Automatic annotation (TrEMBL):
Heme binds at C398. Its cofactor is heme. This is Cytochrome P450 716B1. InterPro entries: Cyt_P450, Cyt_P450_CS, Cyt_P450_E_grp-I, Cyt_P450_sf. Residues 1-27 are annotated as: Disordered. The lineage of its organism: Eukaryota, Viridiplantae, Streptophyta, Embryophyta, Tracheophyta. Pfam families: p450.
């Protein structure tokens, strides 16, 4: 790698040979990252997908990657074509600021508190239909459907029915080719994803047109759902802030990000709690106390969520141990320097959550599940800034972080109160493809505690 005046080159394998990568379905990525750090230090170069790449690890590196304006998001070409080129991950500068601001308008606390009751209703219906009275269930596909139903209702106003079922089917195939080689040939995962994406986009475009008409007739309001919110946003002269294409592209991204990551978190929490009776008992106690303060059948409120402190600490600890997103890429838009190393324009940079999440100097006994790491009495100095990065950081920190918290807390409130469960598989393993997935989708033996919540 070229070095600046007097700047050392980034260490890495001799020459420009591509660096061997871990098998995509093997759960060895963390070990692979650590072996590179052990060999070359926190900054090293390699070749990934045929592109010169710099791996940066550590809290300082995370801060550099999250806050440097000269770094653009770098998504696989396959993901860009499937989601759409005007999604927030692909944009920089004023375009990124404009669209992120629009999404945050929908996701701000004043708006989210209006949706807690809707999420509550979706969770209860899901558990009644797919969990209650069952002797065994497979958790991951059920959690994916639950979070899909929640987010499709709140983002697009889609009630249960044929349209939502069809969109769910499309999205199962959309995910197939997100990280595939972008070769558009018959029978490839990428072709399946493109076809599913085109079908989903037609549905979202139709919803956008229908919502626009409802707004004009006064049958919908800015707070009805994400599409209505985005259509309602205007600039100082009354012009719409987002085009229809930008709305569809970012609706696609929001649906993918919102339902996939939350379902992974819920699945792995259920897996862990099966073998952690102390944490489970403490969570049950927390939620039973909340339930006692409410009338029969009364939905949870924003204020109830604020009382679920232990549950959210456990969720954060699970995000530390098994982050849904292993890491992402950035691209240098100009020559930049980090810790004396010059990184040329056009090179991509890779960061991973595990590099700090599993660092024993930051999180003692990093393999141990310990929700108290995130307790109220923990000093901010215990973990340096940009060490816990399950939601990213900086200008591109996950816009849906608070939405994910609400989904998780509401779902766990009813799960831990209504059911007991045991793991069906003795082998407690998971793979990354590229997101983490437990063995066989996590089948469990299920027992109802009570007939109804």
């Amino acid at each position: 790698m070229p070095a600046g005046q007097g700047s050392p080159g980034v260490p890495g394998p001799a020459g420009d040979r591509p660096e061997p990568r871990p098998p995509p379905r093997a759960n060895t990525a963390e070990q692979w990252i650590q072996s590179r750090v052990d060999r070359y230090g926190p900054v090293s170069k390699l070749s990934l997908f045929g592109i010169p790449t710099v791996l940066l690890t550590g809290a300082k590196a995370n801060k550099f990657l999250f806050f440097n304006p000269a770094l653009a998001s770098q998504q696989p070409r396959s993901a860009q074509r499937i989601i759409g080129e005007r999604n927030i991950l692909e944009l920089m500068g004023e375009d990124h600021k404009r669209i992120r601001g629009a999404l945050l308008e929908f996701l701000k606390p004043d708006m989210l508190r209006l949706y807690v009751g809707k999420i509550d209703g979706e969770v209860r219906r899901h558990l009644d239909e797919h969990w209650a009275g069952r002797r065994t269930v497979t958790v991951m596909p059920l959690m994916k459907r639950l979070t899909f139903d929640i987010i499709s209702l709140l983002l697009f106003g889609l009630e249960r029915g044929a349209v939502r079922d069809a969109l769910a089917g499309d999205f199962n195939h959309v995910m197939d080719g997100m990280w595939a080689v972008p070769v558009d040939l018959p029978f490839t995962p990428f072709r399946r994803s493109l076809k599913a994406s085109a079908s989903a986009r037609r549905v979202l475009a139709r919803i956008t047109r229908e919502t626009k008409a409802k707004l004009e007739r006064g049958e919908a309001s800015r707070s009805s759902d994400l599409i209505a919110c985005l259509l309602s946003l205007t600039d100082d002269i009354g012009a719409r802030l987002l085009s229809d294409k930008e709305i569809v592209d970012n609706a696609m991204l929001s649906l993918i990000a919102g339902h996939d990551t939350s379902s992974i978190l819920l699945t792995f929490l259920i897996r862990h709690l099966a073998n952690d009776p102390d944490t489970l008992a403490a969570m049950v106690k927390e939620h039973e106390e909340i339930a006692k303060s409410k009338g029969d059948g009364e939905a949870l409120t924003w204020e109830d969520l604020a009382k679920m402190k232990l549950t959210w600490r456990a969720a954060q600890e699970m995000l530390r141990l098994v982050p849904p997103v292993f890491g992402t890429f950035r691209r240098a838009t100009e020559d930049i320097e980090f810790e004396g190393y010059v990184i040329p324009k056009g090179w991509q940079l890779l960061w991973t959550a595990a590099a700090t999440h599993m660092d024993g100097s930051i999180f003692p006994d990093p393999d141990k599940f310990n929700p108290s790491r995130f307790g109220e009495n923990q000093s901010a100095s215990v973990a340096p800034p940009c060490s816990f990065v399950a939601f990213g950081g900086g200008l591109r920190i996950c816009a849906g972080m608070e939405f994910a918290r609400i989904e998780t807390l509401v779902a766990l409130h009813y799960l831990v109160r209504r059911f007991r469960w045991k793991l069906c598989c003795k082998e407690n393993t998971f793979v990354r493809d590229p997101a983490p997935s437990p063995l066989h989708g996590l089948p469990i033996q299920l027992e109802d505690k009570v007939a109804s919540p």
